[in-house]
Amino acid sequence: MNANVESLSSNFAIPGHLSFRETQSGLRVADIQTSHASASVALQGAQVLTWQPVGQQPVIWVSKAAIFAPGKPVRGGVPVCWPWFGPLGDKGAHGFVRTRAWQVRASQLDSAGQVVLRLGIGDDADTRALWDQPFDLELVVTVGATLTMALTSHNTGATPMAVTEALHTYFCVGNIAQTSVTGLDGCGYIDKVQNFSQHTQSGEVRFSGETDRVYTPTSAECLITDAAWGRNIHIAKQGSIATVVWNPWVEREKAFADMATGEYQDMLCVETANAPEPVTLAPGERHTLVAVISVR
Ligand code: TA6
């Protein structure tokens, strides 16, 4: 059931740190404030929309042309791609949980002054029509000087459950042409721009055209070096053997009605993922995918 703002507030608000609101288009959003950072999370999709450490530029990017409407994916933030990553026949890209309502399960101000928000979603008749598998999925978002997102898949069914997944994180950068990603040197990757051909990364990743790559296997930390803004964004992870790097560049950007012209210059996706090799869970088994983001 979709909880309204009043019941969310009475059950989960933390005065001065966590409040709930509904946008004009009907999306419910949790606004978070700590002494180290502010953040917002849409309950649709459990999608982190913003995270901004105190004294920093925003770290998480959302398009100026993003569409905030029930049932529509939002261009930016951290879409949760699950139970499939990428397109799946006529079922659309990146699974179905990013456009569905999640429930708030718990909230807490921890001893380090971080706000911890626990969101969950399970199967129902609609999800089983798309993907015939009982499941429980939980995202725990911890907001402080670091942003931690922990996505736990639980196979509540009686047969094995295979998922591909991503925390499809959109980062703000000062200028993509002056940005690099380190941590992937020597790693193999599938280049979706070059017909899904296989390559090996040599040195850092730099950007001078459309880039859409699935690096795997890798559990390495990555560093985004943003020369224009003079900052580094560090991404550590657990439970992930793939890192996706994406920037649409000039031409591909035009295919997205929910991106404004030239915005490709301000953003970069570095995604904590398991794809194309799925994670397979035995009945009753859980798996957690974790991304830990900090500014250095
Ligand atoms: O992660 C990269 C990617 O899979 C690209 O291929 C690109 O299309 C992007 O995600 C955005 O997908 P979306 O379904 O949100 O338009």
Feature tags:
296 residues; 8-stranded antiparallel beta sheet; 3 helices
What does this molecule look like?
It is built from three helices and 21 strands. It has helices spanning 5-12, 125-130, 249-253, and strands at residues 18-22, 28-33, 37-42, 47-53, 80-81, 103-109, 115-122, 135-143, 147-155, 161-167, 170-172, 179-182, 188-191, 197-200, 205-206, 211-215, 222-226, 231-238, 242-247, 267-281, 286-295. Strand 3 and strand 4 form a beta hairpin. With 296 residues, it is mostly beta strands. The chain binds 6-O-phosphono-beta-D-tagatofuranose. Residues 73, 86, 93-94, 168, 192, 212, 244, 246, 269, 271 line the site of 6-O-phosphono-beta-D-tagatofuranose.
Give me a quick take on this structure:
This protein is mainly beta and about 300 residues long.
Structural class: mainly beta
Which cofactor or ligand species appear?
6-O-phosphono-beta-D-tagatofuranose
Number of strands: 21
Q: Fraction of residues in helices?
A: under 10%
Main sheet, how many strands, which sense, barrel?
A: 9 strands, antiparallel
Radius of gyration: 18 Å
Number of discrete helical segments:
3
The main sheet orders its strands as: 6-7-8-9-21-18-17-12-15
The 3D shape can be described as globular
Low-confidence stretches: none
Task: Return the average pLDDT rounded to an integer.
Answer: 97
Span from first to last CA?
40 Å
What portion of residues belong to β-strands?
35-45%
